[in-house]
Amino acid sequence: MTTEQDITSNSEKEPRARRGARRRVKTILGAIVHLPRKSAFWVNGWPRRRRNCVAIVLSVMVVAGAVGCVALYQKVDERGQTQAAGDSASSQIPGRLESTLSYDYRSVESDLASATDNLTGDFRKEFESLGKEIITPVARDREVVTAATVVESSVVSANPGEVTILAFVNQTTTRKDAPEQRLDGSRVRVRATERDGQWLISEITPL
User: Fold this and answer.
1) CB neighbour list of residue 94: distance below 8 Å, 6 or more residues apart
2) Residue 157: which residues within 8 A CB-CB, separation 6 or more?
3) Where are the alpha helices (DSSP H) in the chain?
4) Are 108 and 139 in contact (CB under 8 A)?
5) Cβ-based burial of 48 (10 A; exposed 0-12, middle 13-18, buried ≥19)
6) pTM more than 0.85
């Protein structure tokens, strides 16, 4: 049988238990909120060594990102320069090649002199020598007239200062002992070198 004293005792115990639980919860929450800086889980409370490590890692990431952006820009810029070199050379070389391979025995000296303006480097010197020693006397003796036409050309390789072009050339020729025009087709590889904004022929290789 429950007495009045027991009821009073139970009613007193329940609030005390709840109060005790609330105190324990407050104590736990307070411990979390007021954790020492050395034990906290947010950046500002991290130990100095850990903060330094994070700072170093972030710095490395920033530097790596900057280097990557610079490398990408340089790669894109170089690719653009290479494309521009190929486009410029492919627009100039066919005309220069036609001029170099065309001459008339009646004006061969001036034709070859004009042709050398399309050339550069050792190839120019070799062509000048060949023109004087072989082409000019043979052309006059046989009354040779030849005209070259580049029917097609394409860029094989390109760099900002040098481009290699493959050209298909048709060459019509007449001479004293063969007055009927003869058509010959050939394939040549042309190396072009940039000089003061102009693309000049530095080598012609028959294929």
Assistant:
1) 150, 153, 167
2) 163, 164
3) 4-33, 48-100, 108-116, 121-130, 136-142
4) yes
5) exposed
6) no
Which residues of the chain are modeled with pLDDT < 50? 1-14, 24-43, 73, 77
Q: What SS3 class is residue 160? A: coil
The total number of residues shown for the chain amounts to 207
Burial class of 168 by CB neighbour count within 10 A (0 to 12, 13 to 18, 19+): middle
Q: Which tokens hold the place of 143? A: 């009354």
Per-residue model confidence as pLDDT tens digits over 140-175: 999 999 999 999 999 999 998 999 999 999 999 999
Alpha-carbon gap, residue 98 to 100, rounded angstroms: 5
Tokens 């994070």, residue located = 54
Token output for 145? 């007239």
CB–CB of 165/95 below 8 Å?
no
Query: What whole-number distance in Å separates Cα of residue 7 and Cα of residue 4?
Result: 5
Amino acid letter, 160: P
Rounded CA-CA distance 183/147 in Å is 10
**Do the Cβ atoms of 43 and 54 come closer than 8 Å?**
yes
Q: What single-letter amino acid sits at 50?
A: R
Name the token pair of 121.
């480097």
Q: Across the beta sheet with 162-175, what order do the strands follow?
A: 103-104, 145-159, 162-175, 178-195, 198-206
Q: What is the pLDDT of residues 30-44, one digit of tens each?
A: 444 444 444 444 445
